[in-house]
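Lab notebook page, bench 4
Experiment: in silico fold of construct C2
Operator: M.H.
Input chain length: 336 residues
Purpose: comparison with the prior construct
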Amino acid sequence: MSAKITIKEVAKKAGVAAMTVSRVLNRSGYVSEDARSRVESAVAELGYVPNQLARGLRSKRTGTIALVVTDITNPFFTTMARGVEDAASDTSNLVLFCNTDENEAEEQRYMRLLIEKRVDGVLLVPAQAGQQSLELAKTHGVPVVVVDRAVSGQEVDVVRCDSRDGATRLADLLLIKGHQHFAVLAGHHGVSTTDDRVEAFVTAVKQSNPSNSIEVHYGDFSVRSGHENAKKILNAEPRPTAVFAANNFISIGALQEFRQQGISVPEDIALVGFDDLPAALVTFPFLTVVAQPAYEMGRRAVEQLFKRIENPEASPEEILLPTEIIVRASSGNGLK
């Protein structure tokens, strides 16, 4: 039925000009509330569905953007995706979600597909450096905003949090509690969130006292990696009394491994990490974390992408959002 209905029929039903119907559908130009209400009623009654393809050919827009993330199962990215979807929905845009599993080749495959689909822009959480994906998008004139992670050597908009500040504050918390032997369970070396957090944490620990011991174990941002690297530090000499996990999944894996080994947190080892878990996923909030505003990051990234689409020649911006440290039981009361 909807395929046979034309914009002229909607206009006739509503008692307005076709241009008025177009303005209501496109949310552009002034339309009185009475006319808008009559058009919306006519659209609903007639079952009219606009031809997005035809509109796209005229405007050179598809009304579609993409969010490319590294692990959609991580609650941090799930929350970010909700922020992206809500912001896009506010302007009647569709979002395509792509998951790379921290794999650069998969990221580039998605980028090629998205360019073929003529998306209006891409929000990209780079799997590694992101250089090739950004160059590919630039070559084809597709606007990109990098989210959560920083990239070097590229003029591109970035929306992220201050990982260095968050890691420094966690180190300071543990130092105040009297710890001298530390371990860092990190993600991929070469990813900005990994490198920034590791460097800031190590620097704070060593600046406090050069004799403090600290070991760093790289892996990936997964529960499995948290398990594996937590197992390694239990055999270290001296064994760390405080552990910093570089994201929420690593924290969960480390906590599970410690419990399996009969190591109590925080009595035997204090544990702190990056990124909180949604309240719906935990019965009792336990982990001391640096929380990032994932939902807000998603919304701000969409806003920045639309700004870039409207003004492709503007200078790139970096939007740095604040973090919040949430102190809970896992960091303990300090050494006895």
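Observations: The chain has a mean pLDDT of 91. The chain has twelve helices and twelve strands.
Next step: discuss at group meeting.
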